[in-house]
Structures are given as structure tokens and as C-alpha cells.
Amino acid sequence: MTKKIFVISTFPIKNAQHGGQKRLKAIVDSYNANGFHVRHVAVFYKGYYSDYSESDIPLGSRYDPIVSQSPYTSDIVSGEAINLDLVVKKKLTKELLDFDPDIIDIHQPFIYLGLKSILNEIGHHYKLIYNSYNIEAPMKESILKGANLPIKDITICIEKIKNVEMDLTKNSDLSVGCTKQDVAVLKSYGAKTTVLAVNGINPIKTSKKELDYWKKKLVSRNIYRLIMFIGSAHPPNWTGFYNMVGKGLGFIPYDTRICLAGSIGDYFKNDIKDDNRSIYDATFWRRAFTVGRINDEGLGALIKLSDIIILPITEGGGSNLKTAEAILANKKVVTTQYGLRSFEWYNTFPNLWIANDSENFRRSINDALVAPFRQRTDQENHKAASVTWEHSLKELINAVKNL
Amino acid sequence: MSKIIYIDLTDLEQWHGIHGGTQRVVYGVAKEFFSDKDSNFDVRFMSYNEKRNSFFESSFEPIIKRVEEAGRVTDDIKVAESFEQKIKNALSPYIPPNIKQNKQAKFLLSKILVTTKSIKHKTSILKTISLHKQPKLIPIDFEKDDIVLVMGKPWDNIKIQDKLIEEHYKKKFKLVQLVYDLVIPFNPQLHHPSIFKQYTQNMFEAVSNSDLLLAISENTRNDILKFANLLAIQPPEIRVIRLGDNIKTKNDPQCPDTRIIQPFVASIGTIEIRKNYTELYYAYKLGLEKGLDLPQLVIIGSKGWLSDDIQYLIDNDPVLKDKLFILNNVGDNSLAWVYKNCSFAIYPSMYEGWGLPVAEILANGKFCIASHSSSIPEIAGDLIEYFSPYDTNQCLSLILKYYNNTSLLRKKETDIIQKYKITSWHDTYKAISSVI
């Protein structure tokens, strides 16, 4: 009989943009492709997402004041709303009961803040999967400290996250980690069964139309060399960029630009305005441009036309979709060692520069710009292809089949 | 075969009226290149045409003719006194350079003027504000061994710098640019906000892409290095060259205003926040409040950014009236009279790339008390005395010290005449020629 999986998260997956959305969508697609009957419901703060499905449960403007007070905790707010907001609770309970799943797959621990009460109330008999994306407590602590929130509030918040992470891990039949390190932590939290499902990507696709469009556009702007930075507007992404690349882009040659793709581009556009009277703001966009959230074929074209992909990653848990994308793209890559976590095998590949401080990182970009491109061996090509979701989710699918 | 050097004349071609500091430098150096028949270079001139976004051959002869024949002083004053020019002068400080170059804005300005004056005047205004028409535009095909020397104000239009670098990348010629200062990026409070972005962007490209930078002082050199360091730019070679400080005048020097009574003290420089005339105003108010006898102080400078407040204060203070006043339109010949006849000069500027008026007063054998800020002490070391641009008491006491002690002033002047080495524009030209 076909197993039914009810997947629940604090973000929708329609028109997936950020890393979390892409991972979740890949898992849902993979479940479907492997014959499971899947329903996904997102309980999420509407202010952050404009695209969502009918079955999703958006938290509307009533939540604006709550989220605006603490913009980095909307996931906690969403998780708690499942039990505290009676409209949300009723709708989710109905979805759950109507679908009557065999398995509930919980993405990130925040959902469990409210879902646990519902499950207790309905006397659940479902198998639980905890799909972690990071070890959330330490990462959230770093984000909240960076946002200069009061220490007391941070302590309460982190305590709450750590408790729910541990509680959910203990109560789940299967706990999923993105990195070996995360899996080890889940085990230490008392996980019954664990599986490693590193992040992967879909094969990079593009079209002649997009390629022609971008080729023409770049040449018209005297851009002959392109450096890609792809990411979502997630604090570790801009922190890493500022730490490793910086706002002073004078080391980038005149005919070269950094292309900021994904919502990180929107973040920079908002953060660095060339009308601000700062030497950094006035000059940053002389060597960078943003394409923001771009369609897959457009992004594929830019990746194909690029010379270098940079991974200035200095913090954040999980493994990185950006890293997988860079490996599959077969371009020159400048990264931190941290950016290669879960992909340590890539260390020995050609066209790779690893730098762990800003001066070396910038120098590596310049070195990479002028270095000749070296071809991969067949073995390396084969290994690089393993970063696709199809490969990276194999173990997870087998484990779910065996639940 | 001698190397071709292209000297950019874009600013001078478009400039009408009294030469400011930048135009003096471009004119002074270009004239020397133009006149040296034994030069090691094949000297050519160029200018940027925005409509075609390209560089074209230019000629220095019409410029030299215009400046020399005008004798600067008389014609400049005539232009300044005309109705149209008064409107232009009044509006100019408040129109950002990018707007000035905007055709629609220029058209609008001409419409405003047209409605206020006769057809005869209209014709003259349009003539004044229109670009010089080139009879035939000959595009420049730069080659690898060429040298391009830019000393003007490409920051007025970032397209000039962009085109220059685009050509530089393609043709690989040697790009040499003169850097006056980085006051705007580092002291944005001292300039109108509208110029910050284009100036900083221009400097970013100039420092990133030039093969050689000529700094007009050690202070500017240090500021370039600081700027490069902050923006992760690998700076090119930087050589410090000293600007000419000899003013040549064709006509007999003339007193610029009948209110001037000797002995008087002069302060020279554009009327703008950075020049810090507010300190002089307060020093004089303080001195008068204390009942002190002060010399007449004449401030000479064109109106610059945000100068209305201090101009209004000084123009309308009945207590100061003939004791302290501003002259806005003074040509080089009248300036030469001031240099020759003043007791000494005061230069209270908050920040400079060099401080040409200090050098010029010394070249005229006169003493100066000056702000100790930025590049100013490089000009004459201990030949002059310094005060803080933020200390009114210190400034006042130095004015009194030299006003009340003629023998000390004479001794200082003797020192200056004996020890101050005048730099001619020929010296500047030689210095530039030797490093490019």
C-alpha cells in the first residue's frame, strides 16, 4: 500500500527561491517520484513570501507587529501559532485528519512548538520524521546576537529552540541531518535512527535565448569577466560576503563584475545605496550588480557565462546548496574551507582556491581570474555529478521506505 | 621617434569666466607643453564629446588666444558684471555638475534667461552657455605607446572617466591622472551632497586604473593611499609634483575695490564652507567685542557651494561694514594688486589638497598666517605661522601679533623673499615631464 506522508514546514515551496525552500521541494519531489502519496502544508508569515499554495496556511497582517519586533524569529512565531492561533490550529488539524498520513515529516524544529500539542490532542499514531536543516539553537543565537537583541530575550529564545530540537529528535522515528556534524549532534540528542542527506541541487539548466540575452547585456556594459555569488537574503550569506569580500571592491578589475543572484541581491541593493555618502556605498555598484531572484534558466545562463563562483561562507549550519551548485557548474571556485563542509572530497579538485581570511580571499579571486582553466578527469566529473538531489536523497528515501 | 602625449582639455574648452584652481593648473601645464618646442614628446590635445561618447583631437591655440587676449582681468569682470552672468553666477553653485551638463536643464536655464531679457541678451547668453563648436571632429585612435594626461575635472561627468578607462583597457596606453585632493570622500560635510557620488566614483576609477598618479602634495598622496586601502585597490605609482605659484599678468595690476584702505589683510579662496571664513568672521566679532584695533580684512573669492550664510552675515553686519567685506569677482590682475599691496594674508581653510593662495602670497614675498590642516604646512614649513581652523582665539591673536608688530612682519617677509622658492609652471611642467 502507498505510504502517505504529511510534510509540514514554516515556509512554502511554490516558486522556491532560498536554500531551505529548494531542499524541501527536492524532498517532496523525491517522495512523489518514489511513489509516496504526499501532502505539504506550510504555516508561514505571509510578509516574507508572496507565492504559496492553496493548502498552505499564511499568517497575515495580524502578525506584522509581532514579526517586526523580532524579524529573525518568524519561524518560532509560525510554530507557536499552530497551537495558539485557533484558526490555524483548526485548519491544520483538519488537513491532518483529512489526509490521515502514515508519516509526518517535520521540517525544522519550530513546527513542533505547536504541532506537539495537536498530536497529543488527537492521540496520534503517526511515524515522525525530523528533517533538520541546521542545528538551530547555536545558529539562531549567532543571528540574534548579530541583530543586537537584548541578551535576556536571546537566552529565553535559544533555550526554547534547544528544548524543542531535543524533544523532537527524541520523539522522531527518523532524524535527518544535512552534514555529518549535524547527524552527530542529533545522535547526542537521543535520535532513534539517523540518516545523512546532504544538500544537492537540480541539474543546471539554461536556454539559448537566455544565453544570448545575457551575453549581449554583459558586453553592452563592458563586462567581460563575471564572478557569481548566489544566495538568499539569509544573514550568514551577507555576513560571509562582508567578512571575506568586503564592501570595497577596488580589487576587482574594471572589466569584471560580481553578479549577485538570488534574494541576497535584493538585500545588498537595500543595504548599499550609492546615494549614501559613504565611499563604500558610492563605489560598490561600480564592480557589482544584482539580478535578484532570477528564473532558473537565466541563472543557468549567468553561471555558464561566469568565470568564477565565490563561496564566502563563514558561518551557518547545514551544508550549502551554493557549494553543490558551484561543484556541478564546473567553474573556477573561490571558497572558504567552511564553505566546503560536507563536500570535503572536493578539496582536491582543480580550479579551486581556498582562502580563510579576507586578504587571501580577495587575492584568490584575482589569481583565479587570470589562471588558466584546468579540465577535470572523468573520475572527477563522475564524482561532481553526485551532488544532484537524486543522489543525495537516496539514503533518505530508503530510510523512509523502511519506516 | 618621440612619444605622443595627449593632454585633456575638456574642462578648459567648456570653461568661461575666471579660472579657478583646476583651470589654472590645466592651463599652466598645458601651455608649457604647448610652448616647449624642444620637448621629448609629440604634444597633442584632446577633449571629450559627450554626444558621441568619444575623445577627439583638440587645439590649445584658441584657448591660449582667449585667455591671453582677454588679459583675464578686464574681460572677466565685464562678463561677471553682465546681467546674464549675474544670474548664472547666482545659480551656478546650486546646480550640480551632472545637471549642468544635462541638455534639458541647460535648455530650461536658457528659457528662464530668455524670458527676462531681450533678443540681444538671449543670443549672448546662449552663446555663453553653449559648448564650443568644433569645426570638424577628428576622433583619436590611441596607440599602446601613447601617454594620456588628465589634469582637469573628469568628476564632473563620470562618462569621461568611463570612456577613458574603456579606451585604456583596449589600447593599453599609459594613463596619467593628476589628483588634487580627496576632500569630498573623506570630508563630505565640507561639500554639497550632490557631488559626493560622482566625485568618489571618479576617484575610485582613477586610482584603480591609472598607471601613474600625480599628487599635488604629500597630504594628497597619503589620502590616495588611505582611499586605496579602504577600498581594496592596489594603487599605482604616485609621484608628488609641486604646482606653479607665479601669477603672470598682462595688464597693470589694479585695485579691485574702492573700499580697500591700506594697511589691509587679505584672505583668498572660493566662498564655501571648507574655506572656513566663519572663523574669520568670529575672530573679528570677538576682536571688536574686546575693543581691539583690527586691520581691514578683504575676502576675495567666487561664490561656491552653500556660501549664502557667511556671505549674508558679512554683507549685512553693520558693525563690520568696511572692516570686513567680500569681493566675489576678482580677476588675476586685481588679485596681483592684492598680493602686492596687502600687509599679509590669512588662510583659515579646514582642508586642502594643496592651498594655492598660500603659495601665491609667498611667491609675492608676503607673509601668511594659515590653518595647520592637511597639506598647508607643506607649502612653506616654518616660514609662516599656523593656527587651528577651529580656534578663533588663536587666529585672532596671530592677526594682532603681525598687525601690531611691523618689524616682525618685515623680518618674516625678508625670510620669505630669501628662502621661499617660487615654483613656475615651467618647473611643474618639467617635473611632470620627468616622471611620465
Can you give me a brief rundown of this structure?
The complex is a heterodimer of chains A (403) and B (436). Chain A is an alpha/beta fold and 403 residues long.
Notable characteristics:
A: 403 residues; alpha/beta; Rossmann fold; 2 domains; 7-stranded parallel β-sheet; 18 helices; B: 436 residues; 7-stranded mixed β-sheet; 6-stranded parallel β-sheet; 47% helix
Strand content of chain B: 5-15%
N-C termini distance of chain B: 16 Å
Beta-strand level of the residues of chain A, as a percent range?
Answer: 15-25%
Largest interface in this structure = A-B, 17 and 23 residues
Mean pLDDT of chain A: 93
Let me know the number of strands of chain A: 13
Would you tell me which CATH topology of the largest domain in chain B applies?
Rossmann fold
Q: Give the total of beta strands of chain B.
A: 13
What does the main sheet of chain B amount to? Answer: 7 strands, mixed
Q: Compute the gyration radius of chain B: what is it?
A: 22 Å
| CATH H level, superfamily name of the largest domain in chain A | Glycogen Phosphorylase B
Structural class of chain A: alpha/beta
What does the radius of gyration of chain A come to? 22 Å
CATH superfamily of the largest domain in chain B: Glycogen Phosphorylase B
Describe the strand arrangement of the main beta sheet of chain B, using strand numbers. 3-2-1-4-5-6-7
Taken from the alpha-carbon principal axes, the silhouette of chain B is globular
Q: Span between N and C termini of chain A?
A: 13 Å
Q: What is the CATH top level name of the largest domain in chain A? A: Alpha Beta
Give an overview in words.
The complex is a heterodimer of chains A (403) and B (436). By secondary structure, chain A is an alpha/beta fold. Chain A folds into 2 domains: 4-200 and 390-401, 3-Layer(aba) Sandwich (Rossmann fold), CATH 3.40.50.2000; 208-387, Rossmann fold, CATH 3.40.50. Chain A is built from 18 helices and 13 strands. Chain B is of the alpha/beta class. Chain B is built from 20 helices and 13 strands. In chain B, the strands form 2 sheets. In chain B, strands 3-2-1-4-5-6-7 form a 7-stranded mixed β-sheet, with helices on both faces. Chain B has a 6-stranded parallel β-sheet with strand order 10-9-8-11-12-13, sandwiched between helices. In chain B, helix 13 packs across helix 18. Chain B is globular. Chains A and B meet through helix 12 of A and helix 9, helix 11 and helix 12 of B.
